[in-house]
Request: fold
Amino acid sequence: MTNPITADRRHFEDLSVGETIPLGPRRVSKADIIAFATEFDPFPFHLDEKAARASLLGGLAASGWQTGGLSLRMLVDEFLSKIASMGGLGFTDLKWKRPLMKNDTLSGTATITSLRRSASHRQMGILTIAFDMRNQKDQQVMTLNLTNLVEVRDPSAPIAGAAQ
Reply:
């Protein structure tokens, strides 16, 4: 039976390994950085420009978690809200390559690196996406691999590689 909520969205069968989704751009202001840090990551290099200049970062920098949150928001806007997403399973290989600084513009890509059907839940496919997030100078800021569940349009279809 087709799910009426996701009927008009792309399903597992519609996705392909290698598909790349452009993300961003999103400029990060001083106010954005301080507001996020005040609530979630209150280190001086996220809150105070003088302290930030004296730190290893050399200036006011966004929290890595803010970079991750902004990247996920971009993925939802450009991709996850358009597919029959059933929720996330987690992430691996998170790397903050360089800080996202005040007035930087964050953008990047999310590339589908693997797709497989769940053997135990025939209505679900498992999607892995590799993030490559960069600043306006094309310097890599963050990478990570995200795994998500995606609804299968036809759960009765054979699962490739499975014994029938």
Summary: Helices lie at 30-40, 44-47, 49-53, 64-78. The chain has a mean pLDDT of 94.
